[in-house]
Amino acid sequence: MVQPPSAFEVRLGADAEAIERMLETLLDPAPRPGEIARPRRLMEAMRYATLGGGKRLRPFLLVESARLFGAAGEGVLRAACALEMVHCYSLAHDDLPAMDDDAMRRGRPALHRAFDEAAAILAGDALLTYAFDVLADDATHPDPGARAALLLGLARAAGLGGMAGGQMLDLEAEGRYEAAGPLALDEPAVRRLQAMKTGALLSFAPEAGAILGGASAEDRATLLSYGKALGAAFQVADDILDVEASADALGKATGKDAARGKATLVGVLGLDEAKAERDRLAHAAVMALAGFGPEADTLREAARFTAERRS
Asked: Which NCBIfam families match (predicted)?
């Protein structure tokens, strides 16, 4: 017997639908003021990479964190979509043969397989730059200071000291640049890599919601702490799923981390200890919100969902 969705799953689905509608609007083929044209094939590739897939966890965290501070509406959804576009760009580029060389993403051919490598590179480039276009627009937030904080935060989460830098550390750990093969990273090195490659963007999501809601510096720091713990839990859960889940459940190939010699906490700690660490991190995320009342329950459930997910 199929269980009815929980209140959290209903909220997650409702936010995902609102984000999908806003993405559809932002990725409309019609040029915007200041644009000369939106090339058809590039738009098709961008839409393929972005629309109709994924749980939208990062934008969900942004929307729900903004709601915690009384912010909602079009501007919040625009910011959430900017964050999701950066995430989708990273997936398109990660799947390329020069990177992780994955043929499937979200249960269908990866972008470079559905189109071609050049289209995947350009679609990723365009999604990344368009995300900053969206955030810089006063339709996202009337306060230039808030927009600047969003732009700075996203740049640092996605760039050299965040996601892009983490991807380079990941490639180095695989032994791409070492004749001897994969590097034997210790636990602190693995945690640093994961905090950059996956954690930085996830950590920024709730902090961005706090910025949109005009939260105090103290509350913004609290949401960042929550995001860091949740982001770390997400990556450990992902590592565990690569070992235990089926390709059908994940919508992509599994078992590739060990085959490539990727640095994971499963590899460093072992499967049982990695599961315990995943649960500890999810609990730490919940406890970071101890100063908030029941209005933060959705964010607490998001941390538990991250640890318990099966896909």
From this structure: FPPsyn (NF045485)
The per-residue pLDDT for range 174-200, each reduced to its tens digit, is 988 887 778 889 999 999 999 999 999
User: 56, exposed or middle or buried, with CB in 10 Å at 0-12, 13-18, 19+?
Assistant: buried
Helix ranges, the chain (H): 7-26, 40-50, 57-68, 74-94, 111-114, 117-136, 144-158, 163-173, 187-194, 200-212, 217-244, 247-250, 256-260, 265-269, 271-288, 297-308
Which is nearest to 52 in space by CA: 84, 11, 96? 84
Q: Rounded mean pLDDT of the chain?
A: 93
Beta partners for residue 104, in sequence order = 109
What does the pLDDT look like over 219-274, one tens digit per residue?
Answer: 999 999 999 999 999 999 999 998 986 655 555 555 566 666 678 999 999 999 99
What are the residue ranges in the chain where pLDDT is below 70? 1-2, 245-261
CATH topology of domain 7-308: Farnesyl Diphosphate Synthase (1.10.600)
The whole-angstrom separation of Cα 243 and Cα 235 is: 13
Type of residue numbered 305? F
- Whether the CB-CB separation of 222 and 133 falls below 8 Å is answered with no
Residue 183 has a pLDDT of: 86
Cβ neighbors of 266 (< 8 A, separation 6 or more) are 236, 239, 240, 242, 243, 257, 274
